[in-house]
Structures are given as structure tokens and as C-alpha cells.
Amino acid sequence: MSETTADPRKQTWEAGDYTTAADQSVLVSELLCEAVELRARESVLDVACGTGVTSLAAARRKADVVGVDFSANSLKRARERAGFDGLSNVEFQQANAEALPFADATFDVVVSTFGAQFVGDQDAAARELIRVCKPGGRIGLANWTPGPFFGHFFKVMADHAPKQMKKTPTPEKPGVLWGTEDRLHELFGDLVEFTSLTERTSRSREYSVDEWVNKTTGKLGPAVTILEQLEKPEQDAFIAELRALVERSNTVSGPDVLLESRYLEVVMVKRSR
After folding, report:
1. What is the rounded distance in angstroms from the CA atom of residue 81 to the CA atom of residue 92?
2. How far is CA 131 from CA 8, 137, 191, 263, in A?
3. Which residues are paired to 45 by β-bridges?
4. 96, 151, 194, 238: least surrounded by Cβ within 10 Å?
């Protein structure tokens, strides 16, 4: 069995359907592709691509794109989307962001949208993003910040996750810290030049609080896995805390939900040595 196949985090993400959650990144992906100033025929790698939202945005800009993720069901949906859109300049393959199956300096541009920041070994992922990028190439990231809404949501998830799900070399440095300048400098150091760091707001909508909670706990792989591994009282407490968070964070009155989350759009250039 391969390392990717055996990875428990892969099983966690495959426990759900990431399609609905990925819709959150459609506008984010379009803006990121503009921020890195993609050009036709450039080679692009989309790391932890999920269902391929950013990969397809890059392909529509006439780049030659490879999207990688360790979740087979997300990649299946990504291929379906590419086929529906008639995009032949994008391909998808299964791979772990911590050990990318590409030679050094392969891609003109490397991107990741709310993906690389949540791998187990963050230092390894950062090294890989740099390694596969050509000298003078660009690295573009969209990272949730520790603030509302999603920064707080991931804190709730981490607080309720069973111990067997908490496997990371740096538990004191959660993935949302990729949404801070200090952590990015710590991860990427002087191997890159930061050309832009832009804090943006992403908005998500739902019919009701219950609809949001039901979709999240029924379709988002980590939430599904948390519920499966908790006893009934702990399940109820997890769901109650999610509901309270959404109610507290909702920016509109009435039955519908509008959530605003901050993320950091990052563009770096790999230094030539």
C-alpha cells in the first residue's frame, strides 16, 4: 500500500464530499489567478486542488495545468468539471503535498487555495511548493486567517477532534497561521520574495443555520469523521457549538445566513540562487 493511500488524513477527506465546500473558493480562485498574472502556456501546479476550482480557473487562462490532491473522490469531481467545461489543458493526479512527484524547478507557477495550509507537515509542504517552482517563478496562495469566520470554525473542529485525528509535527502552529505574515516568513524564509500580501473577505450564504450545520456535518470529510468517532453526548456538544458559532457570526437578520471570512492572498517569487 502506498503512503498516500494509507494516509489517515486522506481517508478523513474522502469520508465526505468536498464539492459544496469548494464552491466557497470560486471567486477566491479567480482573484488568485489574476494576482499571479498567469499567461498562456505557462506551466501551473495547483497543490491540494480539491475539486479543481483553482485548476480550472488557471486552465481558462490558457495555462497548462496539473492539479494534485490525495483525495480520490475530489479528483474524480475535478475531472468531471474539466470535461464539462471542455478544458483539455488541465490534468489531475493523486499526490501528497508533502512529497510532490515532480522534479525540481518544473513549474512556472505554483498555487494553492485553502489547501496546503492544512497538511500534516506544514514545513515539508512549504519546501515542496518552493522546490517544484522554477527560479523566478511565482507562488500564489489563498489562506484562511485565524480570524472569523473560518478561523474560528477550524478552532471548533480542532477542539472536538479525537486524539487520533490530531497528527501533526507542529500542533502549536495550526494551519490558519498561514494567514499571517509572520508564519509565512517562518515557512518560506529568504527563498522567496514576497511581492504582495492582500487581506480579502470571502462571503458564504445558506438558507438557514440548520441547513449550514447539516451540510457541514454531513458532507465535509473532517466533520463527518469527527462525528463518527465521538459518543452521542460529544456529538451533540460539537453540533451545538457549530450552531452557536454560525448564529453568532451571521451578518444578516432573518432565517438566511451570510458569513464573512477573512483570508490572505499571497504572491511570492522564488529567488534565483
Report:
1. 11
2. 25, 11, 10, 25
3. 66, 110
4. 194
User: Which three cell numbers mark 149?
Assistant: 469566520
Profile the chain (273 residues) by mean pLDDT over runs of 10 residues: 53 64 88 98 97 97 97 93 97 97 98 94 96 98 96 92 68 90 97 98 96 92 88 95 97 95 98 88
**DSSP per-residue letters across 140-187:** EEEEE-SSTTHHHHHHHHHHHS-GGG---S-TTS-GGGGGSHHHHHHH
Q: ∠ at Cα 262 (260, 264), nearest 5°?
A: 155
Q: Which of 91, 27, 31 is nearest to 65 (CA)?
A: 91
User: Among candidates 103, 73, 88, 101, which has minimal Cα distance to 2?
Assistant: 101
Q: Domain extents for the chain?
A: 3-145+163-203+262-270
Residue 204's φ and ψ, nearest 5 degrees, are: -130, 150
Q: Do residues 270 and 135 lie in contact, with contact meaning Cβ atoms separated by under 8 Å?
A: yes
- Cis peptide upstream of residue 114 (ω within 30 degrees of 0): no
99 in Cβ contact with 228 (< 8 Å): no
Q: What letters, b where the CB count within 10 A reaches 16 and e where it falls short, cover 194-210? A: eeeeeebebeeebeebe
Whole-angstrom distance, CA of residue 178 vs CA of residue 201:
16
Can you spell out the DSSP letters for 78-127?
A: HHHHHHHHT--SEEEEE--TTS-SS-TT-EEEEEEESSGGGSS-HHHHHH
Could you tell me the fold of the domain covering 3-145+163-203+262-270? Rossmann fold (3.40.50)
- HSE value, Cβ hemisphere, 13 Å, CA-based, for 38: 30
Angle at 108 between CA 115 and CA 193, to 5 degrees: 75
Tell me the whole-structure pTM to 2 decimals: 0.91
Output the furthest CA–CA distance in the chain (Å, rounded).
57
